[in-house]
Specification:
The protein has 16 helices and eleven strands. The protein is α/β, with parallel strands linked by helices. Helix 5 runs parallel beside helix 6, helix 6 (128-145) packs parallel to helix 10 (224-237) and helix 6 runs antiparallel to helix 14 (329-345). Bound molecules: NADPH dihydro-nicotinamide-adenine-dinucleotide phosphate and magnesium ion (MG). It comes from Pseudomonas matsuisoli.
Amino acid sequence: MSRPRRVTVLGATGSIGLSTLDVIARHPGRYEVFALTGFSRLTELEQLCLRHRPQFAVAGDVDQAKELSGRLTRAGLSISVLHGNAGLCTVSSHPGADVVMAAIVGAAGLEPTLAAVKAGKQVMLANKEALVMSGALFMQAVRDHGAQLLPIDSEHNAIFQCLPGTYGDGLGRCGVRRILLTASGGPFRDTPLDELHDVTPEQACAHPNWSMGRKISVDSASMMNKGLELIEACWLFDATPAQVEVLIHPQSVIHSLVDYVDGSVLAQLGNPDMRTPISHALAWPERIESGVAPLDLFSIARLDFQAPDLDRFPCLKLSMEAAATGRSAPAVLNAANEVAVAAFLDRRIRFTEIASIIADVLAALSIVEVDTLDAVLAVDTQARRAAESWLKRNGR
Ligand code: NDP
Ligand code: MG
């Protein structure tokens, strides 16, 4: 029997990281944990190290790394503890790792994920922001370095499952008419519009179907998440924005669909639990048990669909426009959104101001070509500064 596949989990202390470790622990002979990374939750990272015994751990900064290293040594474990972006890139590109789960939230995940791609790893991509920021560059690196990119986002994983293995030859050649990207509509799908400016971070994070980290929960509430996913789908499947249609499906049972020219529409269904796409990508092209309960269609009984209302969800509209504009527009959109969501979670701005900040930053900055990592990072920095100065200007 071949040796277990060694997995680096970037963002191990987060929601996707923990679900990944749950699946791995169900298959001890098949996978082993090579490296775990965290950022602010040091005690959680320590607990994960005690349980999964990786060769490497990566903490947020040098002091945390010293602290963690001391605690692990006292527990009798010999684990190398690194820190910061350099530490993340080391464990994501390390020759000892076969698979990298990219589950850091936001732009902070870009460099380590790209490092995994450039090292030709099997990369399981949850960190959609990395692809949104640097799509052309990222996909070129996947091709140049022979990396195997597997989508973890439930919708993209569903689309991947509904496409033929030859989709890389072009969607048209495979007879694909469109991709149908489903969205739950989040907690504010039916909230009266005039109440949206008073909603709290707690309400925004209380997603009706999925349990997720706080940033993506707010993105789901604003439907920015679907906007980022539209851009993500275009890069992953070489689709134009016009080939991707967003539809609200409140039950979150159909995770997305592919519409073919002969009238066939293939869908992937399942309970809303990220362990399904994680297991699918980990074992691909095989299938493994994930711990997810079987789907009970009788208890679901009905599946509903509606078109998204772009007045209710201006972030979705802004993302559609950024997808069509291309070049640096998606990176600007993403950076402004990250700053705005953090400010909302900090109670410095209203929910409805997230879209205002993004719109103002997109209007203020010129859109440029971004064909190097430095260019992407420069756009990201510039857009963050513009969003911060919006906050300052408006007394937040
Ligand atoms: P969480 O907030 O739960 O976890 C984020 C992880 O990233 C944590 O391990 C966190 O460490 C780490 N992290 C945060 N900031 C930094 C930083 N600056 N440097 C290094 N590490 C950092 O998020 P989720 O797990 O929900 O989401 C992760 C990614 O997966 C996101 O891109 C999200 O869009 C995507 N995704 C998530 C889904 C879900 O169901 N949760 C579904 C589809 C996609 P610490 O906690 O120690 O601070
Ligand atoms: Mg998703």
